TrEMBL record:
Residues 23-312 form the Microcystin LR degradation protein MlrC N-terminal domain. It comes from the Bacteria. Residues 321-503 form the Microcystin LR degradation protein MlrC C-terminal domain. This is M81 family metallopeptidase. InterPro entries: MlrC_C, MlrC_N. It comes from Thermalbibacter longus.
Length: 514
């Protein structure tokens, strides 16, 4: 399960020259789910990850993250990287405008206060962050930065594959790109390519122009995986187009359907050298290809009972069930109990559920201590759209501070925290026994690092239930395991009819007949 990224050398400190091209790096990243009842925040004590200045080297160097890939690529290119700030918030509701403005002010001061003017700026944004005023936080951030650095400074923006992209967002950037695979296992390559394009722009060898073609598609995250058709073929075509002369970057963004905003939906962004006509032609070609194959994007899924039954009956090794309706990487609170109920009711054995977020239940288990029998009320305490609290009887197996190192292809090497966490041996019907992981913070169950840190024997499991929409596929690839996506209730469900949309562009497929 552990992923060792190729070409990442354990070199410290980084040896950049003091002259040559000077590129600043900054990240302000959050995915906003407008249906979330958990307020978004950029406050320092509530962030998933944060680092300022040279702290970025200590936190991200030699990891497979966007920041780590930027640092490695800068060293390879021999340019001088200027780490400014890296702020990664948990996916939730809109972020306060005041908190965003404070970060923008800090970033602007860092840029203006540096010993010499930057030659370029590399930004990592989600393309889905919204303020509590209902506007695109990413577009607002770029507008404010332009007021600081001026119109001529080249700015490269790396967005998530699920970004909701429109002309306003790209207007503040010189080059916009994102992953061409989802899950984004190609981040190191894509970041390296984008940084190279930024450097050639700084040196005056190219003059980027951008075309954006929006496609009237609202795609659940589970439908955006590029390891199967039709997006596998489209991703391959996009890579071929990008290799052509005069083409700087081509990205097909799937969009973020859990944001009720006018810019929701898929988009194709093409950056070409000097020729807007060429960029428009390629964007139209990819858009038409995507639109023509839209009927292949949605597949009927299993419900959770069917998924658990199938997993328990398999004799083909590990079956991984994705609980799609409560995915923390998309703003799910992580406290949903649909899968927990199914595992208890069906008497699951040789199974594990990662995760259920419940700080109160964690504290009760911690007070009881390892080896103690407990009766806990678990989950469903802040948002009943994901299920109600369930009484769980079991035994406390392990207690942890929740700190773990990521081991899979996504952000490999980063150290994260799920907050105080416990592993409970949950006792279900028919003498069922399975491992229930309770955490205090919502973390995306898209990496085996947390399970390994908590001592869960993954290799002995028959069934593993993960709260994740699609990113889990990076660590648990179909073919190596049986993958069973399950459409559970919640604010990240693939059933888009669940959502009371008011602001998305209409008509849009599949909600409207097109």
């Amino acid at each position: 399960m552990e992923y060792n990224p190729p070409g990442f050398r354990a070199i410290w400190p980084f040896a950049w020259s003091n002259d040559g091209v000077l590129i600043g790096f900054a990240a302000i990243h959050q995915r906003t789910n407008t249906f979330s009842r958990v307020p978004g925040t950029l406050a320092q004590d509530r962030l998933r990850l944060r680092a300022f200045g040279r702290e970025i080297l200590q936190t991200f160097a030699h990891t497979r993250s966007v920041a780590g890939s930027f640092l490695a690529s800068a060293e390879r290119l021999g340019i001088r990287a200027v780490p400014l700030l890296a702020v990664y918030a948990r996916a939730s509701g809109p972020v306060p405008s005041s908190e965003l403005q404070a970060l923008i002010d800090r970033l602007s001061a860092q840029i203006c206060g540096y010993s010499r003017p930057l030659d370029g700026l590399f930004l990592h944004l989600s393309g889905t962050m919204l303020t509590d005023g209902g506007v695109s936080a990413d577009a607002w951030l770029l507008q404010r930065l332009r007021e600081t650095v001026g119109a001529s400074l080249p700015i490269a923006v790396f967005l998530d594959q699920v970004a909701n992209v429109d002309a306003e967002l790209v207007s503040g950037a010189t080059i916009v790109a994102g992953p061409q695979q989802w899950p984004p296992v190609d981040i190191p390559v894509r970041v390296a390519d984008l940084l190279e394009r930024l450097v050639t722009t700084v040196e005056g060898r190219i003059r980027p122009v951008t075309a954006v073609h929006r496609v009237p598609l609202l795609l659940p995250l589970a439908a955006q995986r590029t390891d199967r058709e039709p997006l596998r073929a489209i991703a391959g075509h996009v890579r071929e187009l990008e290799s052509r002369s005069g083409v700087v970057a081509v990205t097909c963004f799937g969009g973020f359907p859990y944001a009720d905003v006018p810019m929701a939906g898929a988009a194709v962004v093409v950056v070409a050298d000097r020729s807007l006509t060429r960029a428009e032609e390629i964007a139209a070609e990819v858009s038409e290809h995507l639109w023509a194959r839209r009927s292949e994007l949605l597949e009927p899924g299993l419900n959770i009972e069917q998924a658990v039954h199938t997993a328990m009956a398999t004799d083909q090794g590990l079956a991984v069930i994705a609980e799609l309706g409560d995915a923390p990487e998309a703003g799910g609170p992580g406290e949903g109990t649909t899968a927990l109920w199914a595992l208890l009711d069906l008497g699951a054995e040789d199974a594990a559920l990662a995760i259920v977020v419940d700080p109160a239940a964690v504290q009760d288990a911690v007070k009881a201590g390892v080896g103690s029998d407990v009766e806990l009320s678990v989950g469903g305490k802040t948002d009943r759209r994901h299920g109600y609290p369930i009484d769980v009887r079991g035994r406390v197996l392990r207690i942890s501070d929740g700190t773990y190192r990521r081991r899979g292809p996504l952000d490999s090497g980063l150290i994260e925290s799920a907050g105080s966490s416990v592993v409970i041996e949950a006792h279900g019907r028919h003498h069922g026994r399975f491992a229930l992981i309770l955490t205090s913070e919502p973390v995306a169950a898209n990496d085996p690092g947390l399970l390994q840190a908590l001592g869960v024997p993954i290799e002995e499991l028959r069934c593993l239930v993960l709260k994740s929409a699609v990113e889990y596929l990076a660590a648990w690839e179909p073919g190596a395991v049986s993958v069973l996506p399950a459409a559970t209730p919640g604010i990240t469900t693939p059933d888009l009819l669940f959502f009371p949309y008011e602001r998305i562009p209409r008509p849009i497929w599949p909600l409207d007949p097109l």
